[in-house]
Amino acid sequence: MVLISMAIGVVAKKFFGSRHRDADEEVQGDHPVVRAIFGAMNTGDFDGVEGIVDEECQVYANGHRVESETVDRGPELLVGTMRAFREALPDIRWELYDEVTEKAHKTEKVAIRFVSHATIDREERQIEVAVFATVEDKKLFEWREVLDATVTNLHRAAAGLAPIE
């Protein structure tokens, strides 16, 4: 019976949506890594973000590994990508809806769902994003996001980044 109630709750939450309790704030989330990344993206202040990203951190979008021309992992890749979005889309805002953390010995799995808002060609665009992250020894080790590639590629093009296949 408890499992059925949980399943109904998850389906209802997904269908109707549920903003995280601090979604109106610049810094959102319960997990320290989520708070740091959302704070940086929403304010444009990236100081300290590199310190919470592992040197071997890999980023994936829709199953494809994200790379730049000069780097394929680590804080430089993640922060560089975030900065490119902020510079090209200065009104970008991430609004957290859901966050779940599963803790193990030194590893945490964090699942989040958020909506990214940005203006492109004078039209507000929204992308719903699901992220599955791995945090090891309190540092982001892997970031896997699932999102609508069509709208995302509009954002990426505006930021001067390669499209996601």
Descriptive notes:
The chain is an alpha+beta fold. It has one domain: Nuclear Transport Factor 2, Chain: A, CATH 3.10.450.50. The chain has helices spanning 2-16, 32-43, 74-88, 149-158; strands spanning 53-61, 64-65, 93-103, 107-120, 123-136, 139-147. A six-stranded mixed β-sheet has the order 2-1-6-5-4-3. A hairpin with a 2-residue loop joins strand 4 and strand 5 (123-136). The N and C termini lie far apart (42 Å). Residues 1-12 have low confidence and may be disordered.
- Please identify, by name, the CATH architecture: Roll
Shape by Cα distribution: globular
Q: How many E strands?
A: 6
- The structural class is alpha+beta
Strand content: 35-45%
> Roughly how many Å is the radius of gyration?
16 Å
**CATH topology label:** Nuclear Transport Factor 2, Chain: A
Outline the low-pLDDT stretches: 1-12
Order of helices and strands: HHEEHEEEEH
Number of structural domains: 1
Q: What is the average of the pLDDT values?
A: 84
Percent helix: 25-40%
User: What's the CATH class, please?
Assistant: Alpha Beta
Sketch the major β-sheet: 6 strands, mixed
